[in-house]
Design a protein that fits this description.
Length: 619
């Protein structure tokens, strides 16, 4: 521990457990890092705070409603804090301790390998361009970090093609008597045998550095000037070589402009789905997209996605210099504090941006799409699926993992345009080709029980007719009432051999607190918040909910656009659409006068009068 930190330990660890009141009374308000321990002395959680007393007190003064936090607090036997002089020091220490202890309830990076860099050596008269990973102790220019080894090698190849810099080891370079193959294929100027002077080679190195630092336009302008001067001096060979180099740089520049300018920035998107946390980072340097990398940090059950983003960023940029701009989704928790800390570490301003335009918006959207695909692939991985299915079977006490599952949900707005959804998961993975929606009619508005009965009846009649397989597990979004209706509907259809459960949100409606109702059981089943089986239930339930809402919104939108004009005699769909496009909606059509209506293409004076009379006679 450094001399500028002070250790303050709790004074209330007893055989009966931790006494937060006595501990909080003596706790300092200084900035620092706190560590929560269980009775065995293992670190449960590491956190940072601007004000230790205020932050630690927030855990105990009121119920959090978060399953992860409540489970952690039940195990706390001791709290220790390290007081720091600055908030930045607290952020740095927190990341170091998380990396060291990997606490059960913290978000932490699983992959702690250092990122690759591109280095142009500085301890030789003829510098070489090399791949580098690890401590930056050797003299030279370091560029990066790059998201992958492939990105470094691609950039290295570009430099060798454009500037013909060597990449051979010094021992190889110092013992050459004739040029190697790299010279033959025009990837090197053979400095090993003196085919290029030190000054000319140094100029090529300078040009490479300018390219890597993003000064493409300045480099091109200078090369154009040199080309014109060589042409005037009738040195056509040099002019031709410079022309080829300029053309290559122009091609590279046109590619970089597609990324969104000449700046240095990272795009970082985070998400949590089914208990799996994922982060995708896209690296852009000098306007050139260097590729992306996906991470799956350890994220305890109940972790908020903004907390995940904050924890990831504080650890990710601990050993790498952040760019001046970060396009993020979502905005991390304590974003101002984090941005200020990163700025001081980088010795320049660091800005978080969530709302961007034009090219950068498209790249942020692409990164979101990449994240969604990455997370979907992770959830669908064979090992993950098998683990979830086995956990679900164990939690529900099923004879075998449910390979075919269906989930029903109901959506409406105050009884308007009720839609039921059915989503199907096979072998733990969504099969969207078997999703179905049911427009519910003939029931009292808002009667979810009747809606559920109708949807189940319609669906399982088709199943019995052989249109689809009978599910192993049927999930109903709802509590005891919805479950009872589902059991009755299946009994009436004489459907047997299907396990049925009701999935209801807990009292706070937060993930991890779901109550699972089983037929005939007096009390609900509550699976652990970190159960893979519960995560699968949450994923299926959320997908059914999303699918139902999308269908309901579509029906409601159609109804509200067309219903007010449906009763006009002789007014067909094409002219209805024209009216709605002209006036902006049915209410505006109702307010229009006869002359205004008659100006619409396809609306005669007679039809205009009929429309006007319709609205005013029924008003």
């Amino acid at each position: 521990m450094s001399d500028d930190t002070t250790e303050q330990q709790s004074t209330a660890t007893t055989d009966t457990g931790f006494d937060p009141r006595s501990y909080l009374r003596q706790l300092t308000q200084a900035p620092g890092v706190y560590r929560m321990y269980d009775i065995k002395g293992d670190v449960l959680y590491v956190g940072k705070a601007k004000n230790l007393k205020k932050r630690v007190s927030s855990y105990f003064l009121r119920a959090s409603g978060n399953a992860k936090t409540e489970a952690m607090l039940d195990q706390v036997a001791d709290i220790q804090v390290t007081i720091t002089h600055t908030e930045d020091e607290a952020l740095l220490l927190e990341s170091t301790l998380i990396k060291k202890h990997r606490p059960r309830y913290n978000v932490y990076l699983r992959d702690d390998k250092s990122y690759p860099y591109l280095m142009i050596t500085g301890d030789n008269d003829y510098p070489r361009v090399v791949y580098h990973r690890g401590a930056q102790k050797r003299k030279g220019h370091y560029f990066g970090p790059f998201p992958s080894s492939g990105a470094v090698k691609q950039t290295q190849d570009t430099l060798m093609r454009l500037f013909k810099l060597r990449n051979c080891r010094d021992s190889f370079f110092e013992n050459r008597s004739r040029p190697c193959l790299q010279y033959q294929i025009k990837r090197c100027t053979a400095p090993c045998v003196g085919y290029i002077s030190k000054d000319d080679y140094a100029r090529d190195v300078h040009d490479a550095v300018e390219l890597l630092e993003g000064r493409n336009e300045k480099l091109i302008d200078r090369l154009v000037g040199e080309m014109e001067a060589a042409a005037k001096a009738l040195d056509f060979e040099t002019a031709a070589r410079l022309r080829e180099k300029i053309a290559a740089l122009r091609r590279l520049q046109s590619q970089s402009q597609k990324v969104g300018g000449q700046g240095d920035f990272d795009i970082l998107c985070a998400a949590i789905d089914g208990g799996v946390g994922a982060v995708v980072v896209v690296t852009v340097r000098g306007g050139i997209n260097l590729g992306h990398r996906s991470f799956f940090p350890h994220a305890p059950a109940g972790t908020d996605v903004a907390d995940l983003a904050a924890a990831f960023m504080s650890q990710y940029y601990l050993e790498r210099r952040p760019p001046p701009e970060l396009l993020v989704d979502p905005l991390p928790t304590d974003d101002k504090w984090l941005a200020e800390s990163l700025a001081r570490r980088a010795q320049r301003k660091v800005a978080f941006k969530t709302s961007v335009r034009a090219e950068r918006k498209r790249w942020l959207d692409n990164t979101r799409a990449t994240l969604a695909q990455t997370l979907s692939a992770q959830l669908a991985s064979r090992a993950g699926v098998e683990k979830r299915l086995s956990s679900l079977a164990q939690g529900l006490r099923l004879d075998a993992p449910p390979m075919h599952m269906a989930c029903f949900d109901i959506s409406h707005t105050r009884g308007e345009r009720t839609v039921a959804s059915c989503v199907v998961f096979e072998a733990g993975v969504a099969n969207k080709s078997k999703y179905r929606r049911f427009n519910i009619d003939g029931i009292e508005p808002g009667d979810d029980y009747a809606a559920m009965r109708q949807a189940l009846t319609r669906r399982f009649k088709r199943v019995k007719n052989g249109e689809d397989n009978m599910p192993d597990l049927l999930l109903i979004d709802g509590g005891k009432g919805q479950l009872a209706v589902a059991v009755e509907a299946l009994a009436e259809l004489e459907v047997t051999g299907v396990n049925v459960i009701g999935v209801a949100k807990g009292s706070t409606r937060k993930p991890g607190l779901e109550q699972i109702f089983l037929p005939g059981a007096k009390s609900p089943l509550i699976l652990p918040a970190d159960s893979p089986g519960l995560h699968l239930i949450q994923q299926i339930r959320d997908e059914a909910h999303r699918f139902a809402i999308a269908g309901h919104r579509g029906q409601r939108g159609k109804a509200r656009q067309g219903s007010m004009l449906d009763g006009v005699d002789g007014l067909g769909p094409k002219r209805r659409k024209k009216l709605l496009q002209t006036f902006g909606g049915p209410k505006q059509v109702a307010r229009a006068g006869v002359s205004e209506l008659a100006r619409v293409e396809g609306i005669s004076a007679t039809m205009a009068q009929r429309i006007y009379d319709y609205f005013h006679n029924t008003a």
